[in-house]
Amino acid sequence: MAVPPAPRARNRRLGRDLAGAAGFVATLFLTFLGLLAITFFIGRVIPIDPVLAVVGDRATQAQYETARIAMGLDQPLWMQFVTYVGKVLTGDLGMSVSTGRAVVDDLSRFFPATFEMATLGILIGIALGVPLGVTAAARQGSWLDQIIRVVGLLGYSVPAFWLGLVGLAVFYARLRWVGGPGRLDIFYDGLVSPVTGVILIDSLLQGEIDIFWNAVSHLVLPASVLGFFSLAYIARMTRSFMLDQLSQEFVTTARVKGVPERVVVWRHAFKPIRVPLITVIGLSYAGLLEGSVMIETVFSWPGIGNYLTTALLNADMNAVLGSTLVIGAVFIVINKVSDVLYRVLDPRAR
Question: Within 13 Å and on the Cβ side, how many CA atoms surround 113?
Fold first, then answer.
């Protein structure tokens, strides 16, 4: 009996969807496997002896060899890599020499702090950068366009640590508008039980409103500094995309027909740039998650950047590789989310 056309079409669509999902999972797995290979071989190339980091410089040769065998470093390189992949897939990133805890436990404590600060920073960058970029393009050559371009230039040229120090000196030490370094004042530390690790969410879940506002006062300045650099990049790219669209024939046609300028800019010109803008925002967000080391150092922010810096100084290779792996995984996830959003916003990519 012949299959009706409608069910046959549904079956074809279902097959395409399943094939697409399988390809997505396979690409994700292979990318993650490549990331594991890169982090593993970087750990072997770096001129740091992980055995000495554990036993110390005064250990005897016998103690050194015992630790080396216990760490599996006497095995062939390919076998070490297989062991490393197996441990990572089971959630074992080793023990941190610096803290004496499992690296997974450390990352579960430090990464939410970076996530909290970077997320607020990218929201500030989007909320201000996109309108500024659109405005600059719509008023190309005006004094407003020049000011926005100068702001973008400052975002590229001003050192992050200098801007952070100036912000602390002005808004904390002088004006007392914001909280100082750290995530909370010292007398609030430890009063909120970690649930998500994000202090803003955990304090609200537990009804600690005072702690929530104290966390906001500490978060707003470092997040604003990150948001400024994100704003500069997003505004510059948005302006560039908009200038290209505003020169297209369909925009000229809309203006000739008497369509209001606001509608021309935001509906006709802005709509096509949403897809490339997703890439810009995704890269900016990933950069904030992995590149906030200087800001975390200046503000004594207990995030993954600060943790990674401390691990490097202490030759703590398990912590270094674990942090690098998490940062790389974040990039992979953000890129894949961007791919999904492409298909949602642009039917041609489906």
Answer: 26
pLDDT tens digits along 52-76: 766 766 777 777 778 778 777 777 7
* Rounded Cα distance, 136 and 165, in Å: 30
Gap between the Cα atoms of 30 and 51, Å rounded: 30
3-state secondary structure of 92: coil
**Measured between alpha carbons, how far is residue 119 from residues 122, 167, 172, 223 in Å?**
5, 19, 22, 8
User: In the structure encoding, which two tokens stand for residue 117, read together?
Assistant: 């600060």
Which pTM does this prediction carry?
Answer: 0.81
Query: What's the rounded Cα separation, in Å, for the pair 175 and 182?
Result: 18
- Cβ contact 292:303 at 8 Å: yes
* Tens of pLDDT, residues 282-331: 888 888 887 677 888 889 888 888 888 888 777 777 888 888 888 888 88
Identity at 324, one-letter amino acid code = T
| CA atoms within a 13 Å half-sphere pointing along the CA-CB vector of 250 | 11
Residue 97 domain-assigned (yes or no): no
Distance of CA 97 to the CA centre of its chain: 26
Instruction: Tell me the chain's radius of gyration from C-alpha atoms.
Output: 25
Check residue 22 and give its pLDDT. Answer: 73
**Containing structural domain, residue 143:** 104-349
Q: How many structural domains is the chain composed of?
A: 2
